[in-house]
Specification:
Helix 1 packs antiparallel against helix 2, helix 3 packs antiparallel against helix 4 (204-213) and helix 5 (267-281) runs antiparallel to helix 6. The chain has 6 helices and 26 strands. With 379 residues, it is of the alpha+beta class. The chain has 3 domains: 2-121, DNA Polymerase III, Chain A, domain 2, CATH 3.10.150; 136-217, DNA Polymerase III, subunit A, domain 2 (DNA Polymerase III, Chain A, domain 2); 261-373, Box (Proliferating Cell Nuclear Antigen), CATH 3.70.10.10. Keywords: Cytoplasm, DNA replication, DNA-binding, DNA-directed DNA polymerase, Nucleotidyltransferase, Transferase.
Amino acid sequence: MQFSINRLSFIKALGIVQRAISTKTTIPILTNLMIDVSNSNIQLTGSNADISIQTTISGDNPDHELTISSTGKITLPARFFSEIVKKLPDRELSVEVGDNFQTTIKSGNSEFTINGLDANGYPHLPEVDSEHPIHLPAEIFREVIGQTVIAVSKQESRPILTGVHFTLDHNQLLAVSTDSHRLSQRNVELPKEAEGDYNVVIPGESLKELARMLDGETNAIDMHLSENQVLFTFGSTRFYSRLLEGNYPDTSRLVPTSSETQVKFAATDLLAAVERASLLSHESRNNVIKFTIKPADQVVTITGNSPDVGKVEEELTPAAISGADLEISFNPDYMKEALRVFGPIDVEIAFTSALRPFTITPADNQTNFIQLITPVRTF
C-alpha cells in the first residue's frame, strides 16, 4: 500500500474520524484508525464501539492531490499518526506500508516509521439498510439535537433515558428526551414523507458528537435505520451509532393541556434574571429559586436564597401576564438550559399549579417545541 496526498486535506479527514476514537476503549485495536486505499480513493475509519465514523478522500478532487501507487488496508495508532502528520514540514506527504505492517511516512526531509496492525482484526462496520433514507435538513436536525440533548439523563440506572426518542409518522418527526425531572420535545415537519414509521432511541452522547460535525453543514443529511444501528450520511462522511434497547416511557401524557397562569418573557431577559438569582441558590443545599406571580400587579418576583450567604430578590415586568396568583419553586439550572436553546425570542411559560410541571414554549408557535420542568416542593 502506497500513496501521496496533500497534507492539509489529509489532516482534515483525520480530524473527522478521530472524533470516534477513544484511548479508554477496552478493545486495543480501536485506539487505531483504519486506512483503506482503493484504486480511486482512501477511506479512513475510526470507532469506539458506540459510534463509528468513516470518511472518504476522493481521487477525483484535484485539491486532494492524491496519487495512489498501490492499494491495501492497515490500522495505525491514531494519536501518534495524527500528531506526526500535523507536524510534518512539507505540503505533500507520502505513506508506504512495508513488511510486518511497518509504515513509513515521508514529507520533505522528514521520515517517520511506525508499527501498524493488520486491518483484518478491525471490527466490521454495521450493515445498515440504505434503500429508504430519511432526508433531513442538516441545520434543522442540528437544532433539534441541541434542543433535546439537554434533557437526557446522565444516570446509567435507566439507560433508555440517556438517549433521545425519535418517532417518525409520515412526514412528522418527533424528538423527545427526559431525565424524569424535565422534558424536551421538538416536532419537525419533514420536506419529504418517509417510507414507513420509525421508533428509535439514539444515545445523547452520539447525538452531541454528530451535532458538532454538522456545524456549518448546509446540505441535507440522510438517516438510515436498522434494528440496532443508525447511520447518518452527509458529504463524504458516514456516522454510525448504536441504538438503545428497550421501550421509551410514554411521555405524551406528561405535557399539560391547560394552564391556570401564563407569563410571557423575552427569553434572554428572563435567562439573565435566573442566572443572577442562581448565584446565591447554588450555595444552598437544595439549589432552588422561587417565582411569585401576581397578574393583578403585572409583576413576577424572582427570589434566590442561601441561609449561609444571603438572599436575592428581583422584580420582573413580563411582556404579558394573565391568570391566577402563584408561588412556585424550581431548579434554576433546568430553567437556564431550557431558555438558552430558545435563543433571542419571546417565550410563554404556562403554569398549572405549584406542584405540577410547567411548560416553556415559543410565544409564536406553542406546538413545535416544548420544554417541561418539574417544580420542587419546598414545604
